[in-house]
Sequence to fold (445 residues):
Amino acid sequence: VESFERFYSAEHGGVCGLLFTMTGDWQTAEDLTQEAFARAFQRWGRVRRHERPEAWIRTVAVNLARSRFRRQAVERRGHEQLYPSVSTVEPEPLPHDIERFWAEVRSLPRQQALAITLHYLEDRRPAEMAEILGCSSTTARVHLHRARIRLQEKLDLVESKDFA
Amino acid sequence: MSDHPLDRLGQAAGDAVLARARDLPTPPWQATAQPRRPVIRFSQFAVATAAVAAAVALTVGVPRLSLFTSGSPMMGTPEVGIDDVEDRSADQRVWPYCEQAENAPEGYPRDITQDLCDRERERHPEGFTEEELQQLQREAVEHEARLRAEEEAREAARTAWEPRTAPPDAVHLLGTEPGEQAWYTGEGADDAESWMAYGLAAWDDRLGADADEVCAWLAIEVAAVIDDDEAIVTNDPDAPVQYAYAEAEHQAVSVVLSGILDEPVGDGLSPIVAERCDLLG
Fold:
């Protein structure tokens, strides 16, 4: 349990941030974060032996975010009772350009969105992205590249020659 | 990271979110504080149903209830006991399926549970006591173990479904992006295999009552996927397929789909699946 608690403390913020970028909502992000860690806890005997448990938890978190619409109504009722919200006050909105950036990220195809999120949020390398995305490192690199191209267009940012 | 404007903005955006996330109060981990009987969520409902269904199957006379009793990749290990479903006094007589039918959450195949409830009341008008249910559950666990062993043996004989090789025409559900892999790696690792085995067995029965249940179940899952991700079914031989299907919910569903069909599924849902299960309806 101690090792799990260390894991939880170390990864909670990152996972929550990742889920915020995917959902655009802190409350949802927090709920999903709890759910992801609950699943990790249930399987901690196995998860702790993973080479990178932090990648495992992010994969689960991403999956949960993707699933949230599927069973949203039912899950919400469960979450409200299982994991009472710890945040009674919605955090202040982020600066407009930051909010817009993540909004545009969320409008990307989801693998691209996830790749760019992992890149900018946690500075993940393609090999680490690949593990979370469930694809090859090359594919992750392609997703990231395409995401950057599309974001550049959406955000109307000037392209430079060294951009790739 | 380069000095490109996008990189600068992205870096700032990442830092802002991460800082905000880390400023949020991290709730202490209190796994032991979770209620013993949490509200029945979709998955828990199904797990509870699994336990009750397993218990009652032997007496209700449902030919094969492996759909519920063997668990499913999406529903976790059926470890929830009958007493997890609802508090009840020792001498209270109940009809578990009817309880489940009444409590079925939105989206669950209510008609199935209601049908089972009707059968239950017809065959056991006197209902069950807690003690009787516990005994039935013990028998059901043994029964389940036997079924599982039989199905595992059957599966082992099916070389076409050797899990360590990926047939080129493998069927799998994909997301919106061609080539995207199944993604549910965190869930169902324990049960996917047994569920697939059930799917095969159900197909062996050539769409008897149990297969109808499989179809209904698949319909829910596939429809949910379609609603969510506009998922398609493909047999793209170039799509990356990892046949560690025990790790992937979608793959498990796909394996069941292709398993019960015993054929690849091409673009769109298989006409056979669509016809038999009305998946597209």
